[in-house]
Amino acid sequence: MVAVMATASLVACGSGTKSSFHTGPTGNQWTWVSGADVANQPGVYGTVGAASAANVPGARAQCVSAIDSSGDFWLFGGSEAPTEQSDEFLNDLWKYSAGQWTWMNGSSSPNQAGIYGTLGVAAPGNVPGARNGGAAWIDKSGNLWLFGGIGLDASGRSEYLNDLWKYSDGQWTWMSGSNFGSQSGVYGTQGQAAPANVPGARQPAASWVDPAGNFWVFGGSGVDSNGMTDYLNDLWEYSGGQWTWISGSDVVDQPGSYGSQGLAAPANVPGSRLEAISWTDASGTLWLFGGSPGPDGQFGLFNDLWKFSGGEWTWVGGSNTVDQRGSYGTMGTADASNVPGGRVSSASWADPAGDLWLFGGDGSDSIGRVGQLNDLWKYSGGQWTWMGGANVVSQMGTYGTIGTAASSNAPGARNWAASWTDASGNLWLFGGDGYASNGTLGDLNDLWEYQP
Fold first, then answer.
1. Residue 332's closest CA among 277, 404, 380?
2. Beta carbons of 57 and 445 less than 8 angstroms apart
3. Which domains does the chain have, with CATH numbers?
4. Contacts of 295 by beta carbon, 8 Å cutoff, 6+ apart
5. Which of 129, 370, 408, 436 is the most exposed place for a label (fewest CB within 10 A)?
6. Phi and psi (nearest 5°) for 154?
7. In whole angstroms, what is the distance from residue 141 CA to residue 166 CA?
8. How wide is the angle at C-alpha 211 spanned by C-alphas 447 and 65, nearest 5°?
């Protein structure tokens, strides 16, 4: 799951301790706000529509998240792993406001099929099927949108999805795409919107929302124009109720075209990948970092940094080859040689100053080992700064006292967490798959706040 800032934010989940009021963090410190410090905790749902201090979403990974203009956080779906052999998909919708969680919609039971109703028509019974790896955003009117992922379609089959949903006034509306899975993309003419255009089914793509409230999606693992399923590098925009294919290829497994570092060019484009990290900065520039696989279609971990502005991609930093280890430098000190190692499925934020923040994921540490990370990075003024966490993989969480900031606090290493930036510029992190306070690896439901 991905995250951006402001009123149209996107968004990229254990003791059973619930939410608590707190005084807020001090600068550059983490505060454990809600949820448990051990893994694999069930949800406490309460009553639909009723906030309670006892309520808390269950442990999960690859849920989607957004923040509205009131500063409330929204969370949908994801997956929980009740056994080592299987995942269970969720379609519960939650809101976090004034220090409490509210179960708003969807089921408290996993693996629910989608109920689509009629295209374009809201209805109380409509609900997206359970899924993970989708994308979400909130538009200028305060409506919550959901696109794709992998999960249950109208038939109850687990498939890649390309359905687009809107949640408004307490009801879901199926807006675009298919109610059945594994659909091919309909690309049309590059740069031209059309009612028939639609991205192919996919998960987990990178996604953004720009200052105008338009939604953007890039790549992921999914279905191309020929019905082939693998890794994509297509860039799409959703605006005015129509999709436009903007950039990249309409077929899978494309290598990157890097050009010269720092120079935009029409031919530049990131290679096919999934689980890349994305941000939108204050000027509306779309940023992309990392992901997998490698340029030849084989598994690898990127640490390349890209931006998309003025209709062109620019390779900004990092390597054009895979599996680079992290170069951390000195904590708190920016340096041109600093760069996070190759990774996927990190949490990300953009702060009001326009700086980009990156936390954890599954990737390469300072000595080249690959695993889950809890390193915190800031990208500002063209340089990376290692801000916190460890420079080696597999770190357990240090929770401290719920509601109390401390310099020793740190979320455990994890990937597939949800993230938000609030109106005050504080960074929020929820759940994911990672290490709890006792070193156990599993799904998490802890909520953290960090004030830059």
1. 380
2. yes
3. 30-450 (2.120.10.80)
4. 255, 256, 271, 320, 321, 322
5. 408
6. -65, -25
7. 11
8. 25
Q: What is the pLDDT of residues 198-219, one digit of tens each?
A: 999 999 999 999 999 999 999 9
Residue-wise DSSP of 108-157? SSS-PPPB--STT--BTT-BPPPEES-EEEE-TTS-EEEEEEEEE-TTS-
Residue 85 makes CB contacts below 8 A (sequence gap 6+) with none
Q: Coil, strand, or helix at residue 217?
A: strand
Find how far residue 106's CA is from the centre of its chain: 20
Query: Interior CA angle at 101 toward 96 and 105, to 5°?
Result: 90
Mean pLDDT for the stretch of residues 238-256:
97
The model's pLDDT over 401-440, given as tens digits with 9 standing for 90+, comes to 999 999 999 999 999 999 999 989 999 999 999 999 999 9
**Contact 414/360 with Cβ under 8 angstroms?**
yes
Distance of CA 32 to the CA centre of its chain: 20
Tokens of 287: 């940023």
pLDDT band at 298 (very low <50, low <70, confident <90, very high): low
In angstroms, the CA 281 to CA 305 distance is: 14
Q: pLDDT band at 125, cuts 50/70/90?
A: very high
Predicted confidence at residue 23, as pLDDT, reads 47
Average pLDDT over residues 259-279: 97
pLDDT beyond 50 at 12: no
pLDDT on residue 293: 82
Q: Which residues are within 8 A (CB) of 281 and not within 5 positions of it... i.e. 6 or more apart?
A: 287, 350, 354, 356
Burial track 331-347 (b if 16+ CB lie within 10 A, e otherwise): eeebeeebbbbbbbbbb
Query: Closest Cα to residue 98, out of 52, 63, 35, 138?
Result: 52
Q: What is the DSSP letter of 297?
A: S
Contacts with 368 (C-beta within 8 Å, 6 or more apart), sequence order: 325, 341
pLDDT at 331 over 50: yes
pLDDT tens, position by position, 21-41: 344 546 799 999 999 999 999
The Cα–Cα gap between 105 and 394 comes to 35
Residues 6+ apart with CB under 8 A from 49: 102, 103, 104
CB atoms within 10 A of CB 321: 13
- Using alpha carbons, select from 26, 43, 150 the residue that is nearest to residue 444: 43
